[in-house]
Amino acid sequence: MSGRTIIAFDFGTKSIGAAIGQEITRTARALTSFKAKDGIPDWSQIEKIIKEWQPDLVIVGLPLNMDGSYQQVTNQARKFANRLHGRFGVQIELHDERLSTVEARANLFDSGGFRALDKGKVDSASAVIILESWLEKI
What we know:
Blueprint: E1 5-10, E2 15-22, E3 27-37, E4 40-41, H1 43-53, E5 57-62, H2 72-88, E6 92-96, H3 100-112, H4 119-137
Parallel strand pairs: 1-5, 5-6
Antiparallel strand pairs: 1-2, 2-3, 3-4
Helix pairs in contact: 3-4
């Protein structure tokens, strides 16, 4: 097993959560979330995270319907992933993110009640779940 550094993004049209993890420890932690307009973030903020952490791999959560079919936001997430690769030359993998937000909300509520359910915290916690789920499969 290698010791790659991995960033995961929980894509959303209004907010994009980010998490960082290590392949060798199979752990992840929340970084931050970015506001987005129709799925387009402030790319300078994304660039700052990429430069700071210099990931070997970037995981982008792929939003699917419960039956595995695509929805409108699925294509937007793919476009976001393609732009990440094009702008920063990072290796990208898409990963099924079904129910990651539900799980993130439940975890945050359990640890801090309603006050913990800040949108930015939910998005970055969802990115942690996406990354940990990916790490479990390798």
